[in-house]
Amino acid sequence: MTERRDLWAMERALRTEGFRLICGCDEAGAGPLAGAVYAGAVILPPEADLPGLDDSKKLTEKKREALFPLIQAQAVTWAVARAEPEEIDATDILSARMLAMQRAIDALSVKPDLALVDGNRDHGKHAAITTPHRLVVKGDSLSASIAAASILAKVSRDRYMAEMAERYPQYEFERHKGYPTRRHYELLAQYGPCPIHRRSFLRKL
């Protein structure tokens, strides 16, 4: 229980400052060679009952999948958005991350008073977080809202990559989710890139 209380400390402190609708926002899939970058945004009610909530990277796939519907059911509002591989190539991955996160925030049915954004960057050359926000380094380990957003983004992206694995089975996306593993590079060398590969990430090939 201590860990869960710690995760809510940031939101409680912000409520004492007068913020009521606090949105967590995080992205997943900045590093892969293929596929869209996803972002989640969520406004949770105070002290929502989400057992085991944590940074998505610290959770097993089974635990993330179990928390995903709980977050959806308990959230005041939630949204998932993405920036496509073509958008990444046309700009850069930092701008695409900002674009995806702002899209997720914009898709919320209730406008937040404040967004807590994971990381230390809120703008790239071509896109920025425009909602009133605060940056939180390692926020997915420090904020319940950001942790929940990280799960929404990660699970959504993994499901998308499972669909891409069916569409492009030769790349084994179900195994590596598009990340730059040795096997992924072997398959790229064998088959060349497919339509969802990020050409700007493949200049070494």
Provide a descriptive summary of the structure in words.
The protein is an alpha/beta fold. The chain has one domain: Ribonuclease H-like superfamily/Ribonuclease H (Nucleotidyltransferase, domain 5), CATH 3.30.420. Helices cover 44% and strands 15% of the residues. It is built from 8 helices and 5 strands; from the N terminus they run H-E-E-H-E-H-H-E-E-H-H-H-H. The chain has helices at 2-16, 61-74, 85-90, 93-106, 139-142, 144-167, 173-176, 182-191; strands at residues 22-28, 37-43, 77-83, 114-118, 133-136. It has a 5-stranded mixed beta sheet, sandwiched between helices. A hairpin with an 8-residue loop joins strand 1 and strand 2. Helix 2 (61-74) packs across helix 6 (144-167). The longest helix has 24 residues, at 144-167.
CATH architecture: 2-Layer Sandwich
Compute the number of strand runs. Answer: 5
Please give the CATH class: Alpha Beta
Main sheet: strand order: 3-2-1-4-5
CATH superfamily: Ribonuclease H-like superfamily/Ribonuclease H
Measured as a percent range, the helix fraction is 40-55%
Cα distance spanning the termini: 48 Å
Q: How many individual helices? A: 8
Which of globular, elongated, flat, extended, rod-shaped describes the shape? globular
Alpha-beta classification: alpha/beta
Helix-strand sequence: HEEHEHHEEHHHH
- Indicate the mean pLDDT: 95
Radius of gyration: 17 Å
What number of structural domains do the residues give?
A: 1
What's the story with the biggest beta sheet? Answer: 5 strands, mixed
